[in-house]
């Protein structure tokens, strides 16, 4: 059954309708509780999700209107996929019609043979009637009754009777996974769904958001939520308890063509490993972007993709509504704002500045104060991820500061990431980011330590990786970093010098509250040794070399 699906985005509006079809869900995926919903596969994305009945509309009656309101390239690819599906379905129906004619002929022939067989049995029963006793007459009646049933039932009905499945109510799990037959779907489409109104504009608030929907979903709740997350193409259910507010979007393949870019002018300062991928995705999603980089040559590629060039940070801020920045460390972040022709010189009342650098809380608090003192609005939004995730639009964004600015950045965060969290007052995101990277850096050092210990004790490093990948530690991060080490490929995906910087800042954060961080301190020493071995500009996995030299 072809449908259009509408997905709410909490307070920020709704996404345009997207074509899909109702399919059977995986056997291990339980149906969400609450309102009636169907499991839908979306064309052009290969994503799946449970969708409420009131969020579905029949495809054909609204096709033209849907195309008018959505001009995205990814959406057009989805429509093309629908048409291809319809062509294939039509071809199958024609073949099925031909086959059904043959099947009907076979059934008629089979029924005729059945009738002949029943008649033969009746004649045999009549011949033996005078030879049997009265007590056996009942048995004869039973035989005759069975014969009659065999002659009258169709082969399909007999096959159902012979099925090993027990009659009666189906098992509970099977019942939950059953998709309604076409008549039920028709009734749904003509009833609740047909009465569903087209989604409001992005500026209109939407109160009824679906907490079970992960792809395309923006959830903004202060309560614990239940969501579906896509992990390596498999749907798994997780319960997330958090006091923060989160914005969740799908991976870039799912949301291409569905993001409505903000009409605000966007500036971006810093085109390093992370910044380059972010800007590329902002442009792909239709944002108007002005770029600046200390090394001007890095801007050329983005100018070709449609970006505008800013000569100084001050010029970018003065000509844009919201300016993002992503630089290497606290010193670079301060110089960018406070230096000659810096951000501060372009700040006027209403101008917005979003710092995505991973720095300490003191630095980001100082920057927020000077921006706000000029009438500007400030948001910190460091990102968790690496170059590949940045390129794929799959970063995790941790934000704090101006809540209104956070919501104004919604389409940008959707373009660059899969999830964003609002953590409250300025400084919280910086602290959380340092803790996340402290855990990641310490884990990387432990991986390197384990691989070298395996080597010196005569164990296979590949076998160790295979064992880890089959256990509870299995992750994309573990596999990729171990592959880097086994292949001797340390092309930077996350610079070693930056993870060491984050460890240093995390240790200082612990010191500021008198909290011990012995594991991070030990890992930091290993990274410092790797830097002394000239590994600063290699990937963080090059910490392995600190153990073998």
Please, could you describe this protein's structure?
Among the domains are: 90 residues, SH3 type barrels (Roll), CATH 2.30.30.140; 177 residues, Rossmann fold; 114 residues, N-(1-d-carboxylethyl)-l-norvaline Dehydrogenase, domain 2 (Orthogonal Bundle), CATH 1.10.1040.10. 48% of the residues lie in helices and 14% in strands. It is built from 22 helices and 17 strands. Strands 8, 9, 10, 11, 12, 13, 14, 15, 16 and 17 form a 10-stranded mixed sheet that branches. It has a 5-stranded antiparallel sheet with strand order 4-3-2-1-5, covered by helices on one side. Helix 9 links the parallel strand 10 and strand 11. Helix 2 packs antiparallel against helix 3. The longest helix has 56 residues.
Summarize the structure.
This protein has 22 helices and 17 strands.
Features of the shown structure:
single chain, 549 residues, alpha/beta, SH3 type barrels, Rossmann fold, N-(1-d-carboxylethyl)-l-norvaline Dehydrogenase, domain 2, five-stranded antiparallel β-sheet, 22 helices, 17 strands, nucleosome binding
């Amino acid at each position: 059954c072809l449908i259009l699906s509408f997905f709410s985005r909490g307070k920020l509006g709704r996404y345009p309708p997207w074509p899909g079809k109702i399919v059977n869900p995986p056997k291990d995926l339980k149906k969400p509780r609450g309102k009636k919903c169907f499991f839908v596969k979306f064309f052009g994305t290969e994503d799946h999700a449970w969708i409420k009945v009131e969020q579905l509309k029949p495809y054909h009656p609204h096709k033209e209107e849907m195309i008018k309101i959505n001009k995205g390239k990814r959406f057009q690819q989805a429509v093309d996929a629908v048409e291809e599906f319809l062509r294939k379905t039509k071809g199958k129906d024609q073949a099925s019609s031909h086959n059904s004619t043959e099947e009907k002929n076979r059934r008629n022939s089979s029924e005729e043979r059945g009738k002949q067989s029943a008649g033969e049995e009746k004649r045999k029963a009549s011949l033996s009637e005078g030879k049997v006793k009265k007590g056996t007459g009942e048995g004869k009646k039973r035989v005759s009754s069975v014969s009659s049933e065999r002659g009258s039932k169709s082969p399909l009905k007999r096959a159902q009777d012979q099925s090993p499945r027990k009659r009666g109510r189906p098992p509970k799990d099977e019942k939950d996974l059953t998709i309604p037959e076409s008549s039920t779907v028709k009734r749904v489409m003509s009833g609740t769904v047909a009465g569903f109104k087209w989604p409001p504009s992005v500026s209109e608030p939407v109160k009824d958001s679906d907490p079970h929907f992960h792809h395309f979903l923006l959830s903004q709740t202060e309560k614990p939520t239940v969501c579906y997350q896509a992990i390596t193409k498999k749907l798994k259910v997780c319960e997330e308890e958090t006091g923060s507010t989160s914005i969740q979007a799908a991976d870039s393949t799912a949301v291409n063509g569905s993001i409505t870019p903000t009409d605000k002018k966007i500036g971006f300062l810093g085109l390093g490993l992370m910044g380059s991928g972010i800007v590329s995705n902002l442009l792909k999603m239709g944002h108007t972007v002005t770029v600046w980089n200390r090394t001007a040559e890095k801007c050329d590629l983005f100018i070709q993709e449609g970006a505008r060039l800013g000569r100084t940070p001050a010029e970018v801020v003065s000509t844009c509504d919201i300016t993002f920045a992503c630089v290497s460390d606290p010193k670079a972040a301060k110089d960018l704002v406070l230096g000659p022709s810096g951000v501060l010189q372009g700040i006027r009342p209403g101008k917005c500045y979003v710092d995505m650098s991973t720095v300490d809380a003191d630095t980001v608090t100082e920057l927020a104060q000077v921006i706000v003192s000029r009438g500007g609005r400030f948001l910190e939004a460091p990102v968790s991820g690496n170059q590949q995730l940045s390129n794929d639009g799959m970063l995790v964004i941790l934000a704090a500061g101006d809540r209104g600015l956070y919501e104004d950045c919604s389409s940008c965060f959707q373009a660059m990431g899969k999830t964003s969290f609002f953590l409250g007052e300025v400084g919280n995101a910086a602290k959380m980011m340092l803790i996340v990277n402290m855990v990641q850096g310490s884990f990387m050092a432990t991986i390197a330590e384990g691989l070298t210990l395996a080597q010196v004790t005569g164990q296979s490093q590949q076998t160790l990786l295979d064992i880890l990948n089959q256990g509870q530690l299995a992750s994309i991060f573990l596999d990729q970093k171990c592959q880097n080490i086994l292949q001797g490929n340390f092309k930077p995906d996350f610079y070693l010098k930056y993870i060491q910087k984050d460890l240093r800042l995390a240790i200082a954060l612990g010191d500021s509250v008198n909290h011990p961080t012995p594991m991070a301190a030990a890992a930091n020493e290993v990274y410092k040794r790797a830097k002394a071995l000239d590994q600063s500009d290699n990937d963080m996995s090059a910490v392995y070399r600190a153990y073998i030299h």
